[in-house]
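# step 3/5: fold
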Amino acid sequence: QTGEKSLHAYQATKNFYVKSRFAKLFFGCLAAVTSGMMYAVYLSTYHERKFWFSSRQELEREITFQGDSAIYYSFYKELLKAPSFERGVYELTHNNKTISLKTINAVQQMTLYPELIASVLYQASGSEEVIEPVYFYIGIVFGLQGIYVTALFVTSWVMSGTWLAGMLTVAWFIINRTDTTRIDYSIPSRENWALPYFACQVAALTGYLKKSLNCSAEKFCYLLVSASTYTFMMMWEYSHYLLFVQAVSLFLLDSFALAQTEKVYEVYKIYLFSLFLGYLLQFENSALLVSPLLSLVAALMLSKCLQMNMKKGTFMSRLLKIMHIYLVLTITVTLNFLLKMFVPHKENEHLLKFIEVKLGLNTTKNFTMNWLLCQESLQAPSQDFFLRLTQSSLLPFYILVLIICLFSVTQVIFRRICGEPLKETVKLEDGRIGERPEIVYHVIHTILLGCLAMCLEGMKYLWTPYVCMLAAFGVCSPELWMTLFKWLRLKAVHPILLALILSMAVPTIIGFSLWKEFFPRIMTELSELQEFYDPDTVELMTWIKRQAPVAAVFAGSPQLMGVIKLCTGWMVSSLPLYNDDDLIKRNENIYSKRSAEDIYKILTSYKASFLVIEDSICNEVGPVRGCRVKDLLDIANGHVVCEEGDSYAYSKYGRFCHEIKMNYSPYVNYFTRVYWNRSYFVYRINTVISFQS
């Protein structure tokens, strides 16, 4: 009878445990999905308040897409106008209606797979009669940002064991939105399409690396890692560089024997498969073959084969184990060098040149390269960036969590060197958070991304979201507090009880303080009606659509050409594609000190028929002298003279954009002004030259 009571008690306890675990899982998933949906709604509401999108005409809506964003959306429009999807894809892959005298594979050159997917979904879902194309397009992007936030929520939840960490991650992410996402400035940018898939991959990888994982959960995580890795690679041309950073993190994790080697090498195989499939489906993209990711993974596979072929215990096998890191690095560099020698590639040459100049290994007079070096996103982060992270309490808690985790990992590595094996399961009372492979991976990953963010401010959009996630995990994790208390050797209070209390109390206090300080600001931001209106650009586009011949080709700054292509559909002579030197060089000299005859010859060589001068560029008064467009052009054309430490621009010709407005010979011989307003001057390029004074 006593045995039966014990059995019933055991069954009741087990049932209660299962039900409580299910309830925890259900409410956690509900909170994760709700957070993502609310963030997507928040972005949509903010976008509407900022641009008054619903009350604008189609032309005014399209003008809100600037630069490369305009090009991405214009190709989406072209796909929807095509008689069939197949015909639309063919026209994009053999595109000769966008850039004069140039046929491009727009899908390959601009990574238009997001637009292909969006157009298919729009037509297949029968949304033509329900929603306008522009709302459908930006709605997908906002939805992906919701998935991004949900993935960060899940990652923090998986690491800490409580969905309170996920809530705190989302709060920090939204409060620091200026530094976590570029969605406010460029909705169609490739990173806004790609990074949500990378966040899903990181969440799945976090679960996959965990020790205590059942077979079905492990298979699910593996499949999700595979699918999201390949999708991420297809969405962004620079994705393989970010995956390379991740691969380095996994390599270091495996080198210190802190994770199951079989799992790490399964991830390497996913990289190889994704690279191979991406190479085939991206029209044999040679950039993937010469990528450092492929070289590193191939080197890791080769070094593993060398170690496996050596008998264990021999001198050579021990030597290879000690020199493993050096061996892998040597093979990686050698293999990458050989691939670049034998595989023709041009796609990412501009990136390598930029890195050389940025590191001071080379100098250049190239206009495009110097213009990129002047961009704020490619400078070192400002003090304001760190001040914003500190004011939201994110940076102090991140540093605290990072220090504790680093010390714990260092202890574990020292124990491994001394021959102590890792525990199969790490209990709360052990206070060894550094023995959990998924934690070590995230520590290494955020450090590597942080190093990149300290060099280039634009990299903060990759680093800051994971700072939010790691900091939230740390303050909500009883294991992290227990690790700290083990070092402090607390005796007055039971450390496990104190760790559990702090893991609930600290994030609750942080949450309430963030709510009190930042929630009113967010609500004010949503309630304020902003106004974005550019009447001069609207007038210019209207004039082009009404007055310009259908066969006209427009020349001007690459950013403006993108907007003209989107709003009017007319052919242009250049686009804001910085991986194509020919396109950028076509029109750059219209703001330089060159003769009317030189500019005329350059423009007519590309069959341009109209020239658009922007007053904002011509009369630019930049905060940093030497970084204005006209200054960079003077450097590129050798028109800069240095005397007694000062530099001056000198040429026997005046600045073209100024001189052409004077309407005197020889400028009127080559160009005829046909339209102007406060911001733009449009000139017809004469086909018959008049030499009357």
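# step 4/5: annotate
The first helix runs from residue 2 to 51.
# step 5/5: archive (pending)
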